[in-house]
Amino acid sequence: MGQETTTKLQSPAIRPRGFTLIELVAIMFIMVVLATSVMPSFVRAGRDAQLRASTRRVLAALSFARSLAVAEKTPTRVEIDTANGVYSVAIQRPSESGERQFVPEMSSLGRPHALPDTVDIRLVSSTAAPTSEPSGMDAVSFYEDGRADECVILLRDHFGGERTLVVDPLIGRAHVRGGP
Q: Which one, of 143, 170, 156, lies nearest residue 70 by Cα?
């Protein structure tokens, strides 16, 4: 009886269940190959996400400046520091001397916002009157009747992606040219 039990366990018809080491190594190799082929698309998507998010934030600031100008019935502007990649909203208010000047709007949408280090911003063209701002500082003005300076703003990342924002001078609305 003891011999029969031993021979049944060693019989080639009964194999232990599971995978062999070679099968596991082959599966791991296939998984590594698939992961390395998909990884570049994830990296590109992450880079593009930063540019898209920056575009949305600048569009929000432009829209906020226009709405503020109409609601407050006074000129506002989006100031763009191209050298440092910072933008903010300023509203025209009377100073103590009675002279009107632009002062920073410190609400959540108006306060200074820095773009990611991988994204550059610049004003490509504008009909705005020259400002008395330091070099590297540009501005897009919005007026109480909803109009704005005609301008084109370019956002470009260090990986070759770019978005072009256009401000329509008649209605003061900004949109992305040729994109989402």
A: 143
